[in-house]
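Worked example 2:
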Amino acid sequence: MKHCALIFFLLVTLTGFSRIHAISFEDWQAEHFTAAELADPAVSGVDANPAGDGLGNLLKYAFDLDPHAPAIEGAPAAQFFGGALALYFLHRSDAADLDYALEASSDLFHWSLPNGLFPSVTLPLGGVEQWTVLNPYPWPADLPQFLRLRVTQSAAPLLQVEAPRR
């Protein structure tokens, strides 16, 4: 019997790239929280979980979910499809400060970036797309199979402008 799990890990990093006309976590916060909530990092902070559903605000932002509502629909999901483990999730293509990485493991201790995994992108809705990632490689039937989607927040780099040389 195969076992599968979807595990969310949140890391905050200080690298990344900005995109033109992109949304940021701060923009998303301003759209979803009142002034009083914005002043309280326990409600509106990156790791805060005002809905109490286990998904912090950064993940709610990454998956285009309402931070105040439990993530019943729209949260990432995993299932077996034709004998292969597939992961479905919403991806913000309009986010200036998010990176997504899919990792695989058979023991929850040793994680690697699987080679040859390419997302199938469907249902583009503004800056949000439905991504499906299918592990195309055969997996031994006696080994458990785990995928985790790592979502990291990256700071946009400062714009550097050089004066033209004369």
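The mean pLDDT is 76. The two ends are 70 Å apart (CA to CA).
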